[in-house]
Amino acid sequence: MKSLLMGMCGLAAMAACGATRAATPDPGTASFRSLYKELVETNTTLSSGSCTLAAGRMAARLKAAGYPDSDVTLFSVPEHPKDGGLVAILPGTDPGARPLLLLAHLDVVEAKRADWDRDPFALVEENGFFYARGASDDKSMAAVFTDSMIRLKSEPRSRRTVKLALTCGEETTGAFNGAQWLAENKRDLIDAGFALNEGGGGRLSPDGKPLSLAMQVAEKTAQNYILETRNPGGHSSMPRPDNAIYELTDGLARIQAYKFPVHLNPTTQSFFQQQAKVVPASLGVAMSAIAANPNDKLAETVLSRDPLLNSTLRTTCVATLMEAGHAENALPQRARANINCRIVPGETIEGVRHKLVELVDDPGVSVTAQPQRGPIGKPAPLDPAVFGPAEKLAAEMYPGLPIIPLMSTGATDSIYLSAAGIPSYGAPGILHEYDGGGVHGLNEHIRVDALMKGRTYLYRLIKAYAGTP
Predict the structure, then answer these.
(1) What pLDDT shows up at residue 315?
(2) Quick check: is 5 in a domain?
(3) pLDDT at 269
């Protein structure tokens, strides 16, 4: 998951949100913890891990729960033997009811042991948190979905068939992507009326109180651009004005100083309208104002101070990688940087490239769009059949918090499902830390009670969608 889900609510909203109701732990907690630990401790980084191994271990658990071999498909391709995944199917009783698909990715972002306070590939429970790479993104959801399939196997058969797809390649542009491969090569295997995926969830205050719930229905397009400049270089004792590093950094500074214009769509407009009701008044006024008038400069100024809300307002571009020079005593012959943009629906990859060229304003700096990560995502409809059960369950488990439609500022594999005609929703239920919980960074963590409550919410939601008696 590449999104820090919801806009910040502010600490003043904590009291209004209140503490969660006490609940009796769901059965099978020890079994779930074991499954989650096994999945998290299976290294699935692109450099040294294996999604194929993780998928095989989850398949073994499903088969131990009673799934026949015919209902569990392990897949990989010869060119990427470690990037495999699985699809498991629990048949329903009504052949006319379109299946429900549960999608989660097994791969994780790289993590260096020397940088972390704890071993990133050993699940550590400490002070009410689970710590590990993937503890949140996305093995929390992968574990909950796998656990839910195991639990459903022991229940009376549901009306709707339920499918689980665990895939690899979500975290790395250009890697073999299992969701894309399934959508393009095994469409019938994952056919569904709609899917649940990452990207939604919600937000907790720093002391663990629920602040917001979200259902992702749209997402930005993630796109990389390479800025590069070259020149003959020479001896460092004889500086020249067209230094490649200076040319590049001058262009980067102009990109840094620029803010793309506010660009709302029906999803983000609804987000600001609804979120305004549950945040402090000062922030709520700005949200209501921007929803009513995207050109409201005062509201824009207030909301832009928060990185997440700023990203919800507009396309954003930021430098993420840089390399330059070849020797400490030589003028650089080349300098290049990667600009990572998150483009709002309705704007184009080429249009953003043209804006970057305009901002750099130097013919000596080339701006090249890298290969697209995938198709442009199609927003999922605000379907009452999807939102209704989620809202009903939220009213019981998270009283006072509405389900707010969300445009993710990150990127998910839902783009491949929507391109294949399967509407995909980022499910609410697992609430994440106020500051993101170290996702993609150091010491990734998730609250133990938030994960356990999310397990309960998602299991009950899946049962409601599936029509389990």
Answers:
(1) 97
(2) no
(3) 93
pLDDT value at residue 410: 82
In a domain, 6, yes or no: no
Alpha-carbon distances of 292 from 6, 261, 339, 403, rounded to whole Å: 20, 16, 32, 20
- Asked if residue 280 and residue 154 are part of one domain, the reply reads no
Q: Tell me: do 171 and 42 sit in the same domain.
A: yes
For the chain, the domain total comes to 2
Angle, vertex CA 455, rays to CA 98 and CA 54, nearest 5: 80
> In the prediction, which pLDDT does 18 show?
39
Q: Which residues pair with 373 in a beta bridge?
A: none
C-alpha distance from residue 200 to each of 153, 212, 215, 405, 406 (Å): 26, 10, 5, 9, 7
How many residues are given for the chain? 469
Query: Could you count the other beta carbons within 10 Å of the beta carbon of residue 303?
Result: 22
**pTM recorded for the entire structure:** 0.86
Full domain range(s) for residue 304? 221-369
pLDDT digits 0-9 by tens, 18-33: 334 445 667 789 999 9
Q: Are 264 and 364 contained in the same domain?
A: yes
| CA–CA separation, 129 and 106 (whole Å) | 21
Are 343 and 387 in a shared domain?
no
Name, in order, each residue with C-beta under 8 angstroms of 337's C-beta and a sequence gap of 6 or more: 226, 227, 228, 248, 252, 319, 321, 322, 323
Q: Which residues of the chain have pLDDT under 50?
A: 1-22
In a domain, 1, yes or no: no
103 domain-assigned: yes
Q: Could you say which DSSP state residue 15 is in?
A: H
Q: What is the DSSP string of 307-322?
A: HHHHHHHS-EEEEEEE
What's the sign of the alpha-carbon dihedral 370, 375, 381, 387?
negative
Domain CATH for 279? 3.30.70.360
Last residue of a domain, one of 317, 349, 369: 369
The helix-helix angle for 297-304 and 281-292 (nearest 10°) equals 130
